[in-house]
Amino acid sequence: MNGSVLKYLLKEGYRNLWANKYMTLASIGVLSACLVLVGAAVMFAENVASLVGYVEDQNEIVVYINDDVDEAGISTIESQIQTVGGISELRFVSKEEALQSQREQLGDDAYLLDGFEEDNILPNSFVVRLQDVSQMAEVKAQLEAIEGVYQVDAPQKFADALVSVRNIVSSIGIILAVVLTVVAFVIIANTIRLTVFARRKEINIMKYVGATDSFIRIPFIVEGGLIGIMSSILSLAVCLGGYHLLLGWLEESDFAILGSGFSSFVSEWSMLPMLAVVFSVVGVLTGILSSYFSVRKHLKV
Amino acid sequence: MISFRGVSMTYPNGTCALKDVNLTVGTGEFAFILGPSGAGKSTFLKLILAELTPTKGTVEVNGFKMPGLPRKKVPMLRRSMGIVFQDFRLIPTMNVYDNVAFAMRVTGALTRDVRKRVPEVLAQVGLARKAKNFPHEISGGELQRVALARALANRPSLLIADEPTGNIDPELSFEILELLCDINRRGTTILVVTHEHELVSKFDKRIIVIDGGSIAGDSADWGAQ
Prior knowledge:
The complex is a heterodimer of chains A (about 300) and B (about 220).
Chain A: H1 3-19, H2 21-57, E1 61-65, H3 71-82, E2 87-93, H4 95-106, E3 125-130, H5 136-144, E4 149-153, H6 156-198, H7 200-209, H8 213-252, H9 256-260, H10 268-298
Antiparallel strand pairs in A: 1-3, 1-4, 2-3
Chain B: E1 2-10, E2 16-25, E3 30-34, H1 41-48, E4 56-61, E5 64-66, H2 74-79, E6 81-84, H3 96-105, H4 111-124, H5 140-152, E7 158-162, H6 170-185, E8 189-194, H7 197-201, E9 206-211, E10 214-218, H8 219-224
Parallel strand pairs in B: 3-8, 3-9, 6-7, 7-8
Antiparallel strand pairs in B: 1-2, 1-4, 4-5, 9-10
Helix pairs in contact in B: 3-4, 3-5, 4-5
């Protein structure tokens, strides 16, 4: 196949878009609608994931140290903790700091702690944060094994609950995206099959003139790909635009409290790359594959 | 050019459309295939176009032998001939020029050759001025001439016309056949499938009569006797 023929076939695919403009519009409309649904699912899952991620970052394990450990022993323990995997943050809290924060918590009742300055019963401790709360039990066991450690307090139940919430949300997100993608595929394949069926005579004529299968197929595939690209761009604009409006509305409404407490919602611009990838892959693949399979049926003349 | 050797064609439903047909059409000939509808003319054409494979016997067209022709070779067989259909079979979304150019494009012709040849062949059938029109904008006779131009675009050595006059006015029919005679004089083998006795009788050409699935008469044999 020489360059002249390839150029002709690409041009034919483009020309067909215009020659069958109602069918083209129908296909773009259907495919875009499906992609917008997929996009909404992706954006929702992203926000839930970011929320769960924020809460996850709040996890704290407190490692209490025996009072008979001196400063050199404390730094030995610190370096031992650092060798434990999966730790994102490590902070030392001295006896004095612990007392001070207890006083603050008691507020007006802080006098109850008067006199403890001389004989501080609160131990030195390390506060440890984990990268992934699902590793909590494991890390806790390792910390307990360190010599000089008196006790390890870990919010195990909280971690377990969070992990199961995260797993449920991510599986729902994946299932939703997969189901919607399959639905998009079936609907668009049917729409394209209709456009191909409307042009079966054309395909038939091409066969009689001596066109090879690939010569007939390539313009249809180019057409399907172009429909995919246009639908991706359209649905990207609709999703991001809609999301932008939604964020603006949420910030002004009472729901703003939801966002203000922690990291707030995922911004529309950080959604862009992921949506662009999802849309172009799903859109273009759907367009190309459904064209390919729809034409194949009519080539047997 | 075309040869049928003991060809029979039985459809899967048991209908026997052709029975033991033997026929040869040589290079440069002009022959009519004449017969009433249901005589087997369509089956005869479909065998030539490799749309069907004979259930018995062999068909050879332009050096392509059936049965045994691989599916990949079918487009090559079809490119080696020009075909004009009763219902024209033009692509409705392409203008006259592109419909003719299309037949050249499928053979992998270069753009420069297409630009040279298409106006030439449109002029030959007298449609140079209608190049930019779409099929729905021109008359039946003109449509038939576009179909003819498309069939001629690749300079085929064999031209097959299936009821070329079936859908057009009688006076235009004569014109189309004259055009075919002219093309034949330039060396192209022509096979015209038709049921119109009267029209055929106006031309002094070989007539092959098909009836009930077999050859009922051949003017070439009468000449020999």
